[in-house]
Amino acid sequence: MVSKEDGSETTCKVDVEYEWLPPKCTTFMSLGHATRMCPTVKPKQPAVLVYVPNVDVEKPVTVQ
């Protein structure tokens, strides 16, 4: 609010520039922590490697 000489007040627009912005959580749409650090976001499970043997489908296999 800006005070005028007659004692009344009025609003005015002020442009502000920042050198950087703090992290923003896309879950809460607020500043303070990044989405990857959000306490409500569950971490992704790491990929599990599975061994699959090479099988030659062109060569017949004899089973006894």
UniProtKB/TrEMBL annotation:
The protein, known as: Uncharacterized protein
The organism of origin for this protein: Sesamum radiatum (Black benniseed)
